[in-house]
Every structure is written in structure tokens, then in C-alpha cells.
Design a protein that fits this description.
This protein is 80% helix and 0% strand. The N terminus is likely disordered. The chain is mainly alpha-helical and 198 residues long. The longest helix is centred in the middle third of the chain and has 58 residues.
């Protein structure tokens, strides 16, 4: 069937309008290499070039009835390929702008969620640590270490002697050492947690 066509473009375009696939193949064979060179200058990416080339010839096939056999199809194909390339740039630019706008918000939101999770984990770890202390020892520890009060201030508030406060803190520190011995992975974490609160 290919031999029945004349080698001129006008005949091939008329056959293309009639849905003859071999005419489409001839036009593809003529223009695909030229368009590839053109797209290489625009896109510089083989995968994108192949995508645009495929889309360009798909448009030609789908809109073949619009083709004027009296005019060269070259400019039409170049225009389609160029517009498709520009669409890629516009899409990439839009995605970049969206990223620039949304990423800070996403990161800020994620950071806030991360902070909340970390605070919950900190609170839970501290509660486990405090749970192993007696009630009075826990009170003294909270006042001295987490609220930053002096031994004297704590003694006055709890109506005990400063020496008793010192004893409770000493026992609390011993408890923390034992806790850390059983949870070595939390050593630095717990120390930071305690001193971060002071």
C-alpha cells in the first residue's frame, strides 16, 4: 500500500486526512527527526523529548481533518511541539511556585506537630522517672530541678529543713542514676530534659 502513494507531501496529507496510517507513518518518518533536533534545543531531556514528540504526532492524528493538504504540515507540527514544551515549562514553574508557597507552611505545620509529639514524649519520660520517687522526694525534685527554686525556698515552702531538701535531692539523683543504668539509651535525653526545664 505504501508504494501507491506519491512521495509528495500533498498526497500524503490528503491520505492522512482520510485516515490512512501508512501516510501518517511517512509524515512521521520525515518530521520526527527534525522535531527531535528542535526539541533537543528546548528541553535537553530525552524522556521529555520522546513524550512531546509522541504527543505532537498524537495531536496530528486526532486532528487530521484540520490539516490543509495544500500547505506544509511542518509549521503546524513545530507549533504543536513548541507549545507542548512551553506547557512543560509552565507546569514546572507552577510546581516550583507551589513548592515555594506550600513547603514553608508544611514544614511549619510538621515542625509544630513534631514539637507536640516531642513534648508528649518528654512528659511521658519525665513522668516515668518521677513515678519511681516517693511523693515528698518528687515534690522536692520538682521544686528544685524543674521550677529552679533554691534549697532554702523549697524548705520554706514545704516546711522542712534545707538539710532534708538536700537529702531528698541526693536520693532523687541516686534514683536517676539507677534509672539511667537501666535505660542507657535515655542518658543524654533525660539529662537534657531535666536541665532544659531548669
Amino acid at each position: 500500500m505504501l508504494a501507491a502513494f506519491k512521495p509528495d507531501e500533498q498526497t500524503n496529507l490528503q491520505s492522512l486526512r482520510n485516515g490512512v496510517q501508512s501516510a501518517f507513518a511517512i509524515i512521521y518518518g520525515i518530521y520526527a527527526p527534525k522535531l527531535t533536533v528542535h526539541l533537543l534545543r528546548l528541553l535537553k531531556d530525552q524522556a521529555l523529548i520522546e513524550e512531546v514528540l509522541q504527543d505532537t504526532f498524537l495531536v496530528l492524528w486526532e486532528h487530521r481533518l484540520r490539516v490543509d493538504p495544500g500547505r506544509s504540515v511542518g509549521p503546524y507540527l513545530y507549533k504543536i511541539a513548541t507549545n507542548k514544551s512551553l506547557d512543560i515549562f509552565k507546569k514546572a514553574n507552577l510546581e516550583r511556585k507551589l513548592r515555594e508557597r506550600l513547603y514553608p507552611r508544611i514544614e511549619e505545620s510538621y515542625s509544630h506537630i513534631e514539637d507536640l509529639i516531642l513534648k508528649k514524649e518528654n512528659d511521658a519520660t519525665l513522668q516515668r522517672l518521677l513515678a519511681g520517687m516517693s511523693e515528698r522526694q518528687r515534690e522536692v525534685f520538682l521544686l528544685c530541678k524543674l521550677e529552679g527554686k533554691s534549697y532554702e525556698e523549697t524548705a520554706t515552702e514545704l516546711n522542712i529543713s534545707a538539710q532534708t531538701v538536700h537529702t531528698y535531692i541526693k536520693r532523687a539523683n541516686q534514683h536517676i542514676k539507677e534509672y539511667l543504668a537501666n535505660h542507657p539509651d535515655l542518658s543524654l535525653y533525660i539529662l537534657l530534659l531535666i536541665y532544659q526545664q531548669t
